[in-house]
Amino acid sequence: MFEPDQISIGRGRRDTEAWEAALTVARELYAAGRWEGKGQLIVHFPTSLERQLFASGAERFDYRIGVQIHSGIHRLRRGTDYELELAPEASPDEWRQTQFFD
To answer: Could you tell me which of 79, 93, 82, 78 has the C-alpha nearest to residue 50?
Structure first.
């Protein structure tokens, strides 16, 4: 999985509600296979993204980690809605994978 200190808010509010929304988006990205839980995840406008996810409707429940995955998770775009920054110990192949948008 990942640690909460790997999540940060880029653009948007930085209050408690936004932090909880950023964690929700991170959990769904991880459960949907859009983020491997490595490095830093920066979520932009997390409260807005969380609302979009919930409005899109439930797709499935991931019993591995206990997360409801919403169909809107597949519409989020890396580089616009969120960014990935790999840890310094990332391999060259892992680093190259973050240089391209979905």
So the answer is: 82
> In the structure encoding, which two tokens stand for residue 45, read together?
């406008």
Taking the C-alpha atoms of residue 66 and residue 59, their distance in angstroms, rounded to an integer, is 14
Phi then psi for residue 67, to 5 deg, are -125, 135
Residue 78: what are its φ and ψ, rounded to 5°?
Answer: -65, 135
User: Please, are residues 81 and 49 in contact by the beta-carbon 8 Å criterion?
Assistant: yes
Q: How far apart are CA 82 and CA 78, in angstroms?
A: 5
CB neighbours of residue 36 within 10 Å = 13
How does pLDDT run across 53-96, given as a tens digit for each residue? 999 999 999 998 899 999 999 999 999 999 998 766 656 565 55
